Structures are given as C-alpha cells and as structure tokens.
Amino acid sequence: MEGARQLREDYPWIHTPLVVGAPMRLIALADMAVEISKAGGLGFIGVGTDTSTLCSDLQAAAKLIDKSSIKTGHSVMPIGVGFINWGADLSTAIPLIAQYQPAAVWFFAPTSMSSLSKWTTQTRNASPRTKVWVQIGSVKEAVEAMQAARPDVLVVQGTDAGGHGLAQGASLITLLPEVSDNVSPKCGEGRYPQPILIAAGGIADARGVAAALALGAPGVVLGTRFLASPEANISKGYRDEILRANDGGQSTARSKIYDNLRGIAGWAETHNARGVINKSYVDAMAGMDEEENQKLYEEEVKKGDAGWGVEARMTTYAGSGVGLVRDVKPAGDIVREVREGSRAVLEGLSGGAVVGKL
Amino acid sequence: MEGARQLREDYPWIHTPLVVGAPMRLIALADMAVEISKAGGLGFIGVGTDTSTLCSDLQAAAKLIDKSSIKTGHSVMPIGVGFINWGADLSTAIPLIAQYQPAAVWFFAPTSMSSLSKWTTQTRNASPRTKVWVQIGSVKEAVEAMQAARPDVLVVQGTDAGGHGLAQGASLITLLPEVSDNVSPKCGEGRYPQPILIAAGGIADARGVAAALALGAPGVVLGTRFLASPEANISKGYRDEILRANDGGQSTARSKIYDNLRGIAGWAETHNARGVINKSYVDAMAGMDEEENQKLYEEEVKKGDAGWGVEARMTTYAGSGVGLVRDVKPAGDIVREVREGSRAVLEGLSGGAVVGKL
C-alpha cells in the first residue's frame, strides 16, 4: 500500500498502521498528543474553535518533546494541531504554525471551500513541511476538499464517530471504499497526487484497525478509546460513563441537543454530534421545552462527577465504539496495543483458516 | 477461525469466506438463491411476511438444484429461506421446512422472544439438519436471541444495511466486535456453543468482505449488490436507480415513510428501512401531509419504470453501499468476485507493506 510508505516518509517516527489521536477539543492537549507520538503514533492537540490557548499548548508540547527521543526527521514538531475551522482564528493560528511547525494540521468544518483553501495556502506558506489533513464525511465533501485544498491526507469520518460530524452519513464500511474510488486520479487527470486516506469513526480496538486497513486506509484515528487514558483532560464522571456505556449503537445517539444545552452555537445545520444517551436527550426526544431542559442541565453541572450518567445530564460525547472501551490505559499503551493487535488479526486471517477453500 | 471450519462442515458446498444472499422479500427468489449457492455461497429465498408462495418457491428451487451439481452433504436443500417473523405464518412454514429441509432458516423481527423460541423449536423438530439463523441489530438483541433460541448463526446487521432493520444502531465497525465479545461463552458458562457471526450491512465488494473478516465474521451477507444482478426480481427502474445512486451515506436514509406510503403496516416502532432518498422522502421531511404524499405515490406507480429516481416516488430500498454498485453482473459472478477479491485484499495487507515497521 503506497500510502503506508508515504506516511513513514512524512512522519519518520511512526510505525504503520499509523494510529492517530483525534484532536478532541479541550480533551486532547499537549500531554496526550506527545504520548501518542512517542508510541509511534501521531497525536493531535484539539484546538477546536478557540485558538487563544494554542500558543501555550504548543509551548507545553515542545517542552515534553524536548525530553523525549522522537525521531522527527525534517525538524517538524512531531505532533499535529486540529482546528474546527468555522470558529478558529486564522490570524492567530498561522504565526504559531510558522513558529512551531507542527507535523500536521487537521482542518474540519470550514465555513466554505474558499476558507479551506485560504487556511491551506497560508499554512503551506508559513510551514512548508507541515502536512495538511482535511476531515470529510461524504464523497461530495472529499471531492470538494480535493479541489479546494489538495490535502495530503483526507480523514474519512464514518457516522459511528463520537462528537461532531455530518448528521447524515454512512459508516466507514461503505464510505471509505467509495471515497477511495472517487479521489483516485483518473487517466489523464493526474493533476494532483492521491491523498492518503485515514479512517475515523468507531475504531476502538485492533479489529477496527484491521478492518480499516482492509477498507483501504493505512492509518486510523481513535478518539473515544483515548478518553479512557490518564492523559485525557476529562472529569472522572465523564471517564466513568465511557467505561459504563455498552451496546454502543443503542447507548449513543447523534443529536444537536448537547450543543444546544451547553450554549454552543456556530455549528452548521448539516452537523451534529454523537454522545451517550442521558436524561437531557431522553427529555428532548419526549418533547421537553429546550429552555426547561437547559435549566435542568445547568443545575446538573453543579453536581460535578455525579452529573454524568444515564440518569444524569452532563454531556458524554462518545462514538458507538464506546462499548469496546472497558479499561483505562496510558495513551501510549493503547497505540501499541491496537497497532500490534491489528497485525495479529491480519496474520491470523491470511493463515488460510478462513480464506482457504474447502 | 473456528467459525469458518464449522461453516464448511454445515454447508459442504460452500467456500469461505462465505458469501450469503440476503433474503430480500419479493426480490430474492429461487433463481437468485440457487445461483448464489451454485457459486459456493448460500442463497436465501426472501419469504418475508407472506408464506403463501413458499411452497411454489421451494418447488422451483428444487427443480433448479436438481439440474445443478451442488454438493449438499447431509441431503439438505442447499439454500435457505428467510422469514420476517412478525408476519409469517408458522403453521404454513413448518410443514414446508419438514418437506424441503432447507440448509438454513433466517428469522428476523419476531413479535417476542417466546415466538422466536417457538419458531426455532418447531423448525428443529421438523428438520433437524436445518440450521437456525437469527438476525440481530444490537448487543441486547444478540444476547436475548442466544437465550431464547441458541441459534447456529447470528446475522449481525449494521445500520448501513438497506431495507429493514433497527432504526437506532451502529455499523458493523463497532457492532460486530461488541456482539462477538458478548456472545462468547464465559468461563463456567459453557451451556451453549459460540454462534457463528455473519456480517450484514454495507458490504458490497471485496473490501467490505475483508473488513468483516477482520471484525470477526467468517461470512458476509450481500443484499444491495445483488439488486444489480439479472436474477433480482425487480423492475428496470429500480435497478437503474441502484446503478445511479452514489455517495451512499448521503443518497440513502433510514425512514418509515416508504412503508407508510405503500400501506405496509406491522413493523414495530423500533424498526425502519433504508432507501434511496426521493421525492416522497424529501416531501415527508418538509412536512407534507402523509395522505397527500400517499396520493402522489399512487399516481407515480402508474408511470412504471419512470416512477423511480431522485425526482420520483417509487421506493428504492438500498444500503449505504449503493454507491459501490456500478454494474450488473450474474449473482454467481458477484459471489466469486467478492470472495476471491477479499482474499487478495488480505494477502496484500499481510505482505508487510502496511503492517511492517519502519
């Protein structure tokens, strides 16, 4: 697979299949990003919509990296930074990208393709070795992103993903192969190289990694799995809820209610977020007035860790893979475990027991 | 993988990974089922809710099988029959199961677990060599089905599937591993053998088959892919729409509207169906009165093949893998192509280009 070779060239410290830490806003900070990269993955800082802490986050990461022995090759910083572009401030971000030269930037949910193009051009001017990753959730978005930005990487997000993504969509099972078929340069159209596809959405263990490889991605993004690591910047209540929830397709749902209750405005109508079903969601589905629901939410916030749970109201963003998350592990151990495990899964299958004839 | 060995023992004519033809109601009849089995797969007749044609369908299949050379082993009929149990008539079905001894029965959406148990017991009494397959869409359903029926096979259906299934759910990416972990007999609980898991929902080509294997299923179900075969009992308009639709997560949606317009009652509130988005769906989402929508639908029916399409109103049930279906092929060729292709995908991955270290 050509993509794997390219990944190892672009990020010399990684092992393949590449395990990426999702840029979870407020949750994936310097500590998590660096631990993931130290284990041969690629960690992202979740900048999200607010670039005001980006400088201190990058400074913190730089210190942690100085103390480690990551082979960075082209002198880039061996982590990435992830933006939610509709809210992020370009003029704050670009000088910091120029100064710290992260290995990658991850763009998601820009207001327009011309905005995506602008972020991309300015990033490449500011730090030519920084790779541009663009997250998409449909074939249409993939083709548009290729035309606007020619990203190095398309992060293909299936609908099992936790947190924000397209409200309407397919899982990786169909989305990844269909995107792959539609972004391959066709004969006579070789104007841009094939982007590397990285799979996101529902991957929480070695089996999911192996499946993503089979579907055509030489690397994967894990988000929900890293919530159960000491490096995740979340409350105990949030983490306990991640460990509790099972039957992920039933215990989570996509909705706009959690953003609405928390007063987070700005997401387009096309996007919502997957979280663990709780009282806020059940009440909203039953028709409760949003103002009343919000009042109850605000009271719940005061309870601290007790505010999370199926009978409580604090938001637990998580993907449908939440049922596969059963223990807390250091982020680096998660990286190694799912990567090595995926090799074992594939070696077991190619041994012939399954794929052999009679 | 233990399941693959068991499959080859239970269905001696098959090759693994097993490719199964979904029991699509009114669409997958004797011709398709037999062609799939002749190619080393396992074809199902889609009996659905109406058992009145089961006798003639089985008779037709028996004639087709007589003319072929399928190795049946234990003298079962080398195809399966699929029921939608809430509507199917047990007293019609059982004598025909006894007479024709299909290799498998596929149960889906029973009114209760005691009903599922009754269907299972009577089937096993009527034809001990007939294997019992039960379709589930959540971990909860899987565990309940195991307790009620101890099926030989659990068909694990992810939310990408076309036609009917759970309205709320996860894709195979998370559902299959989580079901697998929850139906494995635990230490001291070895009362029943581990069921074989067969993956359904969004699998339309070799990459999907390989992914399902990686996720833990030694076999897969294809439905939407077989709609583009000459053996599918559908109109040209329906088939053309399958070939046209792409970006499957965007061009299809889960809804109850299609059943409602066609006057199909009986499905539980928990279930709906995925179909290609058309005018009926768009109008329903925009708030059109259902009676008005139904009237427009009934006018559309008169148009024949022209009644299908994104600007038309005839129902095109299809999974989100519809964008991967680009040509019409004989059902047997599809079976061979995806099976052999999945081996090539896995062999390519285990070659080391992707999973090798630096």
TrEMBL record, chains A, B:
Keyword Lipid metabolism applies: no
GO MF annotation: an example: nitronate monooxygenase activity
UniProt key word 4Fe-4S: no
SUPFAM superfamilies named among the record's database cross-references: Inosine monophosphate dehydrogenase (IMPDH) (SSF51412)
Pfam family, one: NMO
InterPro entries xref list: Aldolase_TIM, NMO
UniProt keywords, alphabetically: Flavoprotein, FMN, Oxidoreductase
Tree of life domain: Eukaryota
PANTHER family in alphabetical order: 2-NITROPROPANE DIOXYGENASE, 2-NITROPROPANE DIOXYGENASE FAMILY, PUTATIVE-RELATED
Protein name, entry field: NPD-domain-containing protein
